[in-house]
Amino acid sequence: xxxxxxxxxxxxxxxxxxxxxxxxxxxxxxxxxxxxxxxxxxxxxxxxxxxxxxxxxxxxxxxxxxxxxxxxxxxxxxxxxxxxxxxxxxxxxxxxxxxxxxxxxxxxxxxxxxxxxxxxxxxxxxxxxxxxxxxxxxxxxxxxxxxxxxxxxxxxxxxxxxxxxxxxxxxxxxxxxxxxxxxxxxxxxxxxxxxxxxxxxxxxxx
Length: 206
Prior knowledge:
InterPro entries: PPA1309-like. This protein has 206 residues and is an alpha+beta fold. Helix content is 32%, strand content 26%.
């Protein structure tokens, strides 16, 4: 088991890995959700998968495993309905957003009851900024985030910190607090694009 200090370091590395993977995929992509699994546990439990991911027997840290998201719900709604099995140490989400200047707040408030019009207004605003956010959290309370603006699309311009997206971090942390009895996991694809068996979240009944 990783110590809290080691988990914090591993989380930052995992977020950087997910951010680089998202950058390779490019912009205008759907949201993604990753399980963060202790690499040493993954190597022991899934040696074939570990080999496909190029993990050495003495590897440490956290390995991101891409999860398939339902097509009929947005990321936030999905996070409200799931919890992770015990072998998952944390999770990370990737989502793109449009950021508007404070001068647009009044116009957006006037469109509060018309989401379609608000979305169109944001998409057409001349001062809009497109942003890709990565937010991650662990069971032991560590969080880390990374931002990349489309207007500054290079690794040196990535902004990182522990609490850049409080609302999304809260949703991620909530998926890690409920105990779940999860059956054998379905297929998922890892950060390198392979199709693998990996821990998957259980959808909670409502």
